[in-house]
Amino acid sequence: MNLRNVAIIAHVDHGKTTLVDQLLAQSGVFRANEATTERAMDSNDQEKERGITILAKCTSVLWNGKAGETRINIIDTPGHADFGGEVERILGMVDGCVILVDAEEGVMPQTKFVLTKALKMGLRPILCINKVDRAHADPDRVHNETFDLFAAIGATDEQLDFPHIYASGRNGWATMDLNQPNDNLAPLFDLIVDHVPPPKVQDNRDKPFQMLNVLIESDPFLGRILTGRIESGKAVPGMAIHALDRDGKEIERGRITKVLAFRGLKRQALDEGSEAGDIVAIAGMSKATVADTLCALEVTDALPAQPIDPPTISMTVSVNDSPLAGREGDKVQSRVIRDRLLKEAEANVAIRVTTTEGGDAYEVAGRGELQLGVLIENMRREGFEVSISRPRVVYQEGPNGEKMEPIEDVMIDVDDEYSGVVIEKLSQRKAELTDMGPSGAGKTRISLKAPSRSLIGYQGEFLTDTRGSGVLNRVFSHYEPFKGEIAGRLKGVLISNSDGDTAAFALWNLEDRGVMFVGAGEKTYEGMIIGENARWDDLDVNPIKGKQLTNVRASGKDEAVRLTPPRQMSLEQAIAYIADDELVEVTPKSIRLRKQTLNPSFRKKRARPDWA
Fold it and tell me: Which of the four, 251, 377, 464, 553, has the lowest number of CB atoms within 10 Å?
C-alpha cells in the first residue's frame, strides 16, 4: 500500500481543523450512522472553548484515488505562534505539508513562521487557498503574496515551483481551477498523493528499529505513550528496546507492550507491528521523553532532534498565600505545584521551568502570554491554587556583552478610522512601522516590529481603542539591543484596606473613583485590588463600609443603590493587566488581583510620573 505523511500548517483561524474534518468525512472514516462532531481534532476542553488548536494531533485516512489505495497520515498543527514548539518538532515526521492561507486575509505572521520551518527542513509545500467563497476573497492576490513570501525567506527553485489549489474547507470542496466548480475534496487528496513523496525511510525496513519521539501523553491503562515516525526497521509488540537521549546516553531499557497506529480518530493496536515510514504510538517505556530515540538494543547512535526556539516570556508561579488561600482548591502545596510544572515541561518542549533562589517559587518560561495562560488555566481546572507574577521578557546577552531583547513581527487589521490611534500608542511603546496599506472593506493593514515587552498588557487597550473591531497578530522574529524604558500601566488601582464582604453602599460611593473589579457581597481582604483608579496613583479604600442606619423612617429619604456591573477579567487579561508589584491569585473558582505586599504600611510609595 502507498503511504504519505503530511502536515497541515497555517496561521490561526485559517481553517485547518475544519478542513481536516471534511477530509475525515469524505475518506469514509465515519460510518453512515456515526455522529460526527465539528472540529473533531480539537479534543482538549480549552481547544473547544477557545476555538483554537493547542496540541498537534495525528490522524490517518485511506484514499482510493488515481494512484490506487493510499494511507495518508495527516497531522493537524496549532496555528498560534505561542504553540510553535508543537509545529517545530512535528515537521520532522512528515515528507510534505499543505500550507493553508485565507483567501481574504492573505499571508499573516504565523504563515511566515510555519513556512520558514517547513522550507528549512526541505519540504515542498502545497498551497491551499482556503475560504475562496468569502465575500471579499481575492485568491490571485493571496497567491502572489505567498509566492513573494516563499522568495523572501529563501525558498529553493524546486520549492518555489509549488502547486496551488482552491478550497472551501467548511463546504468540503476543492478545485484546481475556479472556473471548474467541484463538490468534493478529491482533487486535494490526489494532489497530496502526487506531490508528497513516499517516506524515504521506507528503504530502511531491513535495518534495526529506530524511532525519534516527538509527542508524549499518558494513558491510565497503558502508561506513557510515545509518538513518532519509525525511521528504520519494524516495531513489534514484545520487542526489547532502549531509549537514548540526544547525546546517545542510555536512559532506560524496556519492552514494547503496544504498537498503536492512527486509524481515523481512533488508535488501533497492531499485533504484527508496523514498518519504517509509518507514524505510530508506542507504550512500554516509563522514562523516555520528547526528543529521545527509541531503538533496538544493538543501536547506540541517537537520531538528530530538531532544535527548538528559545522561550521569550517568563513569569513566576508561587504558592497562594492570601488570606483566602485553601478555600476553593485542594492542590496548594509547593511540592505539588512543582511536580505539575515539571510534568508540563517534560511534555511541552517550548516551556522551561526553573526554581527561584528562595526555592518556594518557580520561574516558568514560554513563548507568550497565551501559552502560559493555557497552562495556568489547565492547572486551575485540576484544583490548583497559585499566585502568578507579571510576565517578563527573557533577555539574552549579545556578542559584546550588551543586553538583547526579543522583537516580534506584528500585523494589525483595523478599521481605517482607528489606524492613527493604534500607530500612536505602539510608537510610544518603541514599535517601528514597516508597512501600511489598505486591505479592503474599509480596513487598513499595519505591519510593525515591536519589542515583546511593549506588547505585554497591550491587547486590552488595543481592543478598547479599536472598539473591539481590530485584529492583532504577532510572532517572535529575532533579538535586538535593549530599546530603553517603556511606560507601563497609566492608571493606579483601588486597594481594599479591610477584610470582609463588599457592601453595595460602599461600592456605590467608590464608583466616582474609577472602575470596579468586584460586585456586592464578594469576599475581599486587605491588599486585594478591587478596582482601577481614574488617576495615576494607587488608593487604599474601604469597600465593606455599610450605611449608617438611623431611626428616621421618612419615605423618599434613601436613593436606590444601583451599581455599575464590575469589569470581569479573564485569566489572560488579568495576567496582562497587573504591574510589577502585583500578583494574580488563581483558584478553581476565582481570579483575584492583589498587591504582593498586603500591608499598606510596608508598600513603597509610587513616584509621580512625568506625564501625570
Answer: 553
Nearest Cα to Cα of residue 489 among 461, 517, 531, 528: 461
C-alpha cell of residue 598: 498586603
User: Up-side HSE of residue 425: CA atoms within 13 Å toward CB?
Assistant: 22
DSSP result, 570-583: -HHHHHHH--TTEE
Residue 278's nearest CA partner among 1, 492, 562 is 1
Q: Cα separation of 171 and 486, whole Å?
A: 47
Give the pairing of strands 582-586 and 591-595.
antiparallel
> Tell me, what's the pLDDT at 34?
46
How many other C-beta atoms can be found within 10 angstroms of the C-beta atom of residue 136?
11
Burial of 310 (0-12, 13-18, 19+ CB in 10 A): middle
Distance CA 13, CA 75 (A): 16
Which residues, in sequence order, are bridge partners of residue 269? 260
Q: For the segment 561-598, what is each residue's pLDDT rounded down to a tens digit?
A: 788 899 888 888 888 888 888 999 999 999 999 999 88
Rounded Cα distance between 11 and 87, Å, is 12
Please state at what angle helix 419-428 crosses helix 458-465, rounded to 10 degrees: 150
